[in-house]
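Structure request: Acyl carrier protein, Cohnella rhizosphaerae.
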Amino acid sequence: MNEQKLRHIFAEVLEIPESQISDELTYNSIPQWDSISHMALIAAIDDGFDTMIDTDDVIDMSSFGKAKEILAKYGVEF
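Returned structure:
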């Protein structure tokens, strides 16, 4: 359920089909995921999961898979 929610956030913010999102999807691997959309993604994740991701984790969030790992630290279960 949470993975689907996160997938939907990625698809919406990056304006790509959900089918394109996998754990291997990485920052800057597609033109849509640049530094500006990265910050929009963080904001949408914070809103969607009621978190406040800290700066180190924002920088560390380099892939969809890593996003799940980071959110797990904030108590989101996958």
